[in-house]
Sequence to fold (224 residues):
Amino acid sequence: MLAADVFALTLTSSLPGSVENARQAIAELRSIATTTSCRPEQHCDGGSCPVAGWVESGMIRKYVVHANGQRRIIDLLMPGDFFGLSNGDERDSSLQAVANGTRVARCSRRRLLDLAERNRTVGQLLQERAQHAIARLETHLLVQGRTRAPEKVGAYLLCLARRLGSPAADLDLPITRYDIADHLGIAVETVCRAITELRNAGAIDLNSPRRISIRDAHMLDHEG
Fold:
């Protein structure tokens, strides 16, 4: 499957109505946007005008850097995820490519919202993707709210595996342990100790630093 098709497949499955209507809506979206490829660690932010857009393929991190220099990851955006839909949404945050093959589409926010007003299917799509983002962030808050670090990290890995479509298979981590730490708001040393504890408990196997096999999803999902 071509990388661009990941975006189309994700949206087609979430759009109401016929597949043909979905394809037409996706074509109209792409007609107003400029798509660029981003290397890992390359910033994917737009220019001076209010910019909106979406991830066509790969992954980007949305993050902020506080005055004390600490980085905090707000979200990980994957194909079909949008950004910049509300006023001020990207004012203090930055977008940065995580994985090879990352492609990001961008357009002015006003142009995207005008299209949503003219095209009912596009409007429904933006509403559905906004609801999807809210649900994802609510889930992340619940993960952060767990008491012990192994519970946080275990639930985080399980959520990431589900988003990547591999909850019962080997998980190739697209992000580093530093990313996990900055997304959960804990120290990277705590993440490393938690992963070791999960391995010793039999919940996961470590095939390599970036390749994890989930052996007991119930244990990872357990509140403790």
About this structure: Strands lie at 34-38, 51-57, 60-65, 71-77, 82-83, 94-97, 102-108, 170-172, 204-208, 211-214.
